[in-house]
Design a protein that fits this description.
Blueprint: E1 5-9, E2 12-16, H1 22-27, E3 52-55, E4 60-62, E5 73-75, H2 79-94, H3 110-117, E6 135-137, E7 141-144, H4 153-161, E8 168-170, E9 177-179, H5 196-200, E10 206-208, H6 212-220, E11 224-230, H7 251-260, E12 265-268, H8 270-290, E13 296-297, H9 302-311, H10 325-336, E14 343-350, H11 354-359, E15 365-366, E16 369-370, E17 374-377, H12 378-387, H13 409-412, H14 419-428, H15 434-441, E18 451-457, E19 463-470, H16 472-483, E20 490-494, H17 511-526, H18 537-545, H19 551-555
Parallel strand pairs: 1-5, 11-12, 11-14, 13-20, 14-17, 19-20
Antiparallel strand pairs: 1-2, 3-4, 3-5, 6-7, 7-10, 8-9, 15-16, 18-19
């Protein structure tokens, strides 16, 4: 047994228990060193220099990139360090646009927070922010160079987490910027619209493209009927912004608030997720019987679909032909909920920025326009509620509207990695008892691991091998196994780590938050009276009413190589 090693932080001995850097040791003492470029899921960069510490000899070094050493003594708060950090903040602010009061990231900006924390009441240097600000954009993402502090979090996220590499550093010295190759628009690059760069950005330099004003205009127009659907993952992310417990299901409050701001009809996308489960289960069993186009790969995530089109077109025949739940629901709404004399305006509240791109795809447009007229992220919905003066914590919850008023637990868990796989397995197995569903829940699809591979044998003795990946770098690793000949029957891929609970349109997440949100969806599933999709009476009624003979035209799509 080896003796525990210690280092000294501000004179206090702190045990070293496998921490990779000194910053992690320091944080165990309750000292919150400021950082911009440090992120637990990314490589060490050490560029911002805000986490500098001082040793007994007066040497300064970055704690994020320095391994802890036994016996070493460092200080985190000296006059020299405070002056150093203030100088860094002033220099950053001197190159920043400083339009904080009109910034969509106001009060959620790390630069703003640190300026307050270090009592920056003036900047000694002239403002050198670029007046000709670059506003690089796509259908779902907007980049404003005037707000960028060159921390590199977005670059490393795009490369290391998502394996896309659509953005990188360009030029050197004072001319350095974050840019796409040759300065192209994001829409012209390999960007898949996942929005993880926006999640990583500490200053709001990268943000989802806003559709808020278009929705307000539609709500004010008396000649327009407004219909809204809310994705499962939204319910466990919105509450925390309103002082409600992280991960708590606040869907009844969201439904009530949406009616308060003027929507005519309010629905839960979990209903359409049930339809997706039924259609995908049918498709899988047909492929399994024929032995063709296996593994079947899920099609719910638009970020993954773009990634597949751009980097793995050879796998498009493996991708399920099922539309995403959002697009399935949108086609049903446009087909059934229109009113004579009124234009129908369909809105989707999504945790995902890539949904904004999906809504504009040619595959989901008719002669009358897009099936989804506007996609609003969770963050955007928060802004709308605040603008309307609605406090979720002070209103009474309400249910969704008829006739799409029931959803199963299977539809709810679509928002967490492994949830689609579990939902399909619930539908495929013959035994629907509680004990059987509990067994399904423990075969290996749950958890936040980036890659999960597990086996299941059905009641008929059919051995299935399943793979689940979240985060596109993990997806690439899983697909490499397929390429090398490893057999799989079902593969689920979500572009965002942890699934939709940490989508690009959700409030900022870290590992603990991701877990809490996922657990919130599983808790909601556990409390549902209906646990598998085929038992949903509203779905059964829709199949007998609208979908008879229209399943393919309304519920399926075929993606093609870009």
């Amino acid at each position: 047994m080896t003796d525990t090693e210690y280092m000294y932080v501000d004179g206090i001995p702190v045990a070293i228990n496998g921490e990779k850097n000194m910053l992690q040791v320091i944080r165990k003492t309750g000292v919150k060193l400021p950082t911009f470029c440090y992120h637990t899921d990314l490589s060490i960069y050490g560029a911002c220099r805000m986490c500098m510490v001082e040793d007994e000899k007066g040497n300064l070094f970055t704690s994020c990139s320095t391994p802890p050493k036994s016996g070493m003594s460092i200080k985190t708060n000296t006059a020299r360090l405070r002056k150093y950090r203030k100088n860094i903040l002033e220099l950053l602010l001197a190159n920043h646009c400083r339009d904080c009061t009109t910034c969509v990231n106001n009060k959620a900006c790390k630069l703003q927070d640190l300026a307050v924390r270090f009592n920056i009441d003036g900047v000694r240097f002239p403002n050198r922010a670029d007046k000709n600000r670059v506003k690089n954009s796509s259908e779902c993402i907007v980049f404003d160079s005037g707000k960028c502090i060159l921390c590199g979090d977005c670059v490393r996220t795009c490369h290391e987490v998502q394996n896309v590499g659509a953005i990188d550093f360009a030029y050197r010295g004072s001319k350095m910027v974050i840019s796409t190759a040759f300065g192209k628009n994001l829409s012209e690059t390999d960007c898949v619209g996942c929005g993880q760069c926006a999640v990583a950005c500490p200053t709001g330099a990268i943000m989802p493209r806003s559709d808020i004003q278009r929705v307000w205009d539609a709500l004010e127009d008396k000649s327009v009927k407004t219909v809204v659907q809310v994705a499962p993952a939204v319910r466990v992310a919105l509450g925390n912004l309103e002082g409600i417990e992280e991960g708590k299901d606040v869907s009844p409050l969201i439904f009530a608030a949406l009616r308060k701001i003027g929507f005519d009809e309010v629905y839960d996308t979990s209903f359409a997720a049930d339809i997706t489960v039924i259609e995908e289960s049918k498709e899988f069993l047909e492929r399994l019987k024929e032995g063709k186009n296996l593994p079947i790969i899920t099609s719910c995530c638009p970020g993954w679909i773009q990634y597949c089109e751009k980097k793995h077109p050879e796998l498009l025949n493996n991708v399920s032909t099922c539309r995403s739940p959002m697009e399935m629901f949108a086609s049903i709404i446009k087909e059934e909920r229109g009113e004579r004399g009124k234009k129908l305006f369909s809105v989707a509240i999504m945790p995902c920025t890539a949904k904004k791109f999906e809504a504009q795809r040619e595959e989901f447009r008719t002669k009358d326009g897009a099936l989804v007229d506007a996609v609003i992220t969770t963050e955007e919905l928060t802004h709308m509620f605040r603008e309307a003066g609605i406090l979720l914590s002070e209103i009474d919850g309400e249910p969704v509207d008829h006739p799409y008023d029931y959803s199963s637990g299977s539809g709810v868990i679509f928002g967490v990695t492994g949830g689609v796989t579990e939902a399909v397995l619930r539908n495929v197995i013959k035994d629907k008892s509680r004990s059987s569903l509990l067994k399904i829940a423990n075969v290996g699809e749950r958890g936040n691991e980036g890659i999960k591979i597990f086996d299941l044998t059905t009641e008929d003795g059919v051995a299935l091998r399943l793979g689940v990946a979240s985060g596109l770098m993990n997806a690439e690793k899983l697909l490499e196994k397929v390429k090398n000949g490893e057999k799989f029957d079902i593969i689920e891929i979500m572009a965002c780590p942890g699934g939709c609970v940490s989508g690009g349109g959700q409030p900022f997440v870290h590992a603990n938050v991701r877990t809490n949100r996922g657990n919130g969806l599983y808790d909601a599933d556990r409390m549902m009276s209906i646990r598998h999709s085929e038992a949903n009476p509203s779905v059964a009624a829709l199949y007998s009413r609208l979908l008879t003979g229209k399943e393919h035209s309304l519920l399926h799509v075929k993606y093609k190589k870009k």
